[in-house]
Here is the input.
Amino acid sequence: MKIIRAIMIAVLSCLLASGAALAEGPKADPEAQITALNMAVVSVRHITAARDRLVLDQEYSQIVNNLSLGDLDDAPEVMGVWTRLLDAISACRLSDEERQVFAGIYEHRQKNALNTVLSGMRPSMGSLRHFFASLFSCGVNAWFGVRRELADIHRAAGEKSWELKKEQLTALHELQKELLAGSWLLLNHHGLPDRLRVTQEDLDCLEQAVAESDWGKSSQMFALIENSFSAFPPYWFYRADAAYRAGDDAAALAFLDRYDAVWKRVLRRDPCRARADRIRILLDESLSDEQTRALVARIRENTSPRDWLDNLFCGTMLWTLGDRDEAERVVRGNILFNAEREVSTVVLSHMERGDFDRDTFCADLRAALAGEAPQTPEGELLAAWFDGRDGLAVKLASEEYRRSASALPACVLWLTAREPGRASRERAEAWRECFENALSVPSDQDKKALAAAGVRAAQGNARASLLLAAAAEFGWNGLKDPFAAAKYYRAAAEAGSVPAQERFAALCMSGTGTTRNSAEGVRWYQIAAEKGSAAAHYELGRYFRTGQGPARDLAAAASHFFAAAQRGHASAQAALGELYSKGAGVPLDWYEACKWSTAALLGGAENARRTLNIIDGKGMLRKRRLSPEDRDRAAAEGRAIFERGGK
Here is the structure.
């Protein structure tokens, strides 16, 4: 009986012990908790440094909401801060529509990078595995790229709506301080070493090193903060990436080894982990098939089904390893999830037919990348105009305008006519009126056109920025915004668009949508004038004729009026005729005054009639300035100038 009782007590004790263990569950790794909190702190620092909702959205999806914090029940203060942080960031996130715009822009930037790498590659060089690794390592997911390419993305998507408000930044700053204090609390609670803690000063130095665009300088900066971040896994990844981009492959591999040594799974999907393994496959030629397969498996664990470039990397690596069915399944996922279609279709078609002839594959890929523009009327029109094929663009725009008289073709025709030497000023004004008249009838075509312009503007296309500027200035599709107009005109001007240079100069002169700055306006007019802009020469003539103090220079005014007059600018011809009639900036010459005033009047400048009336003695003094013969000869030359369109 005693033996039975002892056995029962022993069994019951075991059950109670096991039950207690089950109730308690596995203990979270305290160092992983600290690493997770530090990653959250760094992520918030990225947001507050950029002051931008695009960065916030990426940090939220890739880091903040992706963290596995483990069991924080024994640190309720930290859990409370964490909950408030999630609420604060969630309130600032992008809408679905804004996220789609950003995703479209970033996809095209990735494809642009892919096209750049493809154009510089020799398909016959290296193994097939190295060829694919080099090709599909060219881009990075948006979490890495958004901060470095923020200015270009803003040019496409519109900067004003992305900025975080002052009170939102203040709240995030305060929560960041609380998280720093929370990491200190956990360090003390678990008795962990102080090397695991980061400070505000550490964060500032790390942010500066990560943001540095000179990779060699960035590598040196990372070396100086090693003591503060040696236990922080992303630090070693950033340092390895900087060394890789600076061309120091040996250092990059050494830093990847350090990254592997301290890395902990604190993210459900870790973008640094996926990127680090891609770099290792690209750089380490000593990897065996099994090692490569293990790295590919880990990349896939840390890759979203919509990270299409990572999926192409994994799919092509699996193909070279002989896992062909799985390779096709991975690439087909890009199409199934609508992550990307054009490039994935080319890769999949070659996989399905078992043919990876590199020359043929590269040719097919180039064709797919070149054919991204939709083959709709507006897509074909914009592709032609953005690429400078003006003959085709004008033909398509004219045909489209006859069919629908909508804003897009009218705008293209107007902006094309404003290019130096393209059309008369009157013709350009007529197309501007057609564009304005069509603005009251918004269409799906217009929305698609502006979305396409946003993508191309992000890639630095001057005409795309010019189109967006016109939309913002005139309120096309409800987008009237003088500040956005000035921003896009400036972007197009800096990219070399003469009409944009003229218009941005005018905005600087008037202070519309930008700071009023006459010197800046004159500078842009001079740039446009050097490229043959009659309008810019005319505006410079007006400035020097009416300017105050040192700005008034009648000789310079006459020179610019003459340059514009030779290009058929009727108002400049009238102004030049008036200067000749007064001997202002040029010698007094009634013959020249008559010639240029006649050309101006025929061109529609009615104010030239006053100078002709004075020449004909119709003024107060009733005195003719030219003999009938000279008057007729000068008028004949003026008519010839008008008929020639200038000279």
